[in-house]
Amino acid sequence: MNIGVIKEIKKNERRVAVLPGAVSDLVHRDNAVFVESGAGNGAGAPDEAFIAAGATMLATPEEVFDASELIVHVKEPQASEIAMLGPDHILFTYLHLAAYPKVAEGLLESGATCIAYETVAVNGGLPLLAPMSHIAGRLASQVGAFYLMSPNGGKGVLLGGHAGVPQGQVVVIGAGAAGMNAADVAIGLGARVTILDVNIDALERAHGRWGSRIVTDYSTRGSVSEWTAKADLVVGAVLVAGDRSPIVVDRSMLADMHEGAVMVDISIDQGGCFETSRETTHEEPTYVVDGVVHYAVGNIPGSVPYTSSRALSNATLPYVHALSGGMADAIAKRPELIGGVNIAGGHLVNATVAHSLAAESADPLIVLGVA
User: Number of C-alpha atoms within 13 angstroms, CB side, residue 311?
Assistant: First the structure.
């Protein structure tokens, strides 16, 4: 199959979807890989490395789209990229359509088959979302600690405290992959950490991992309000795969929070879990509402493209291999890919994603002709 890799054009996005080591594997299996020149520069993968791996370098994204059947991407396609998609293309990337309905509209019009990393599920896990969730979670506590410093707009709290001075209080809402990693780093920084979730099993896992080093609490409106009022840093890590994130912190709760406290919304790429969240960029990452600093960057792992590109390429490569044989062969080899298909043939074909967009869904197997 002809596989294309284009340069990411979302603001401040420096990741690349496929690295030279993966290209070498794909070429070895008789695929042709076309890479837009400069696609890997931000991730430490220059054109020369792709050429040595067997890729054909092309000057423009239009050339890559024209040459390729399978487009492997990182972030949701931007308008100019959607315009280059056609019915013969398979797009494999993060889509987060619940947060980007205009992207959904464009992809439906394109006729392309669009597979979202974040809705591929295996035994209750999300293997293609997990690496970025881990990284985003770890970064959430790092950036939270940074913005708690007074010169950065925060309250002036050191999370680890000092002799005779209490540690900072971190509240993590959501005990999934992102939340657990956020807690891990916050604990490592010496903070007092509370984790809230509606899933008792997830809270049991957190308690089993850290024991008395953390506090766990069942997430209700009351408990969230109680803990956010005490917090120096709140990390929102709530996920309903494919659907819009539920709002767990509404604006009224900010009135009881400390001035200069920081809120980091990891869930922003699914719409956000704080009522006062709006997507920001690495260039302008924060804003203040009611005295509380908000960080809501939509591509948090894009700030560490060297690490995150490698983690993503490692996770997606087995699926790219499967897709290189076409959709029918891919679904036979990797049945979980059917849950990843969000759009095909001009139809929404993932029921959860369709629900988030208040639309009807079609049967993906019928639309793809593999029933």
Answer: 17
Rounded to whole angstroms, the Cα distance separating 246 from 242 reads 12
Judge contact between 254 and 247, C-beta under 8 A.
no
Tokens standing for 284? Answer: 């302008």
Q: Residues with catalytic annotation?
A: 96, 269
Query: What does pLDDT average to in each consecutive run of 10 residues of the chain (371 residues)?
Result: 97 96 97 98 97 98 98 97 97 96 97 98 95 98 98 98 97 97 98 98 97 97 98 97 95 97 97 97 97 97 97 97 96 96 97 96 94 72
CATH numbers and ranges of domains, the chain: 2-126+305-368 (3.40.50.720), 130-298 (3.40.50.720)
Q: Using CA atoms, how far apart are residues 352 and 111, in angstroms rounded to an integer?
A: 20
The closest alpha carbon to 294, from 109, 152, 192, belongs to: 152
Residue-by-residue DSSP string for 257-309: SPTT-EEEEGGGGGT-SBTT---B-SSS-EEEETTEEEE-BTTGGGGSHHHHH
The token duo for 31 is 């695929």
The reported pTM is 0.95
CB of 178 closer than 8 Å to CB of 239: yes
Distance CA 258, CA 191 (A): 17
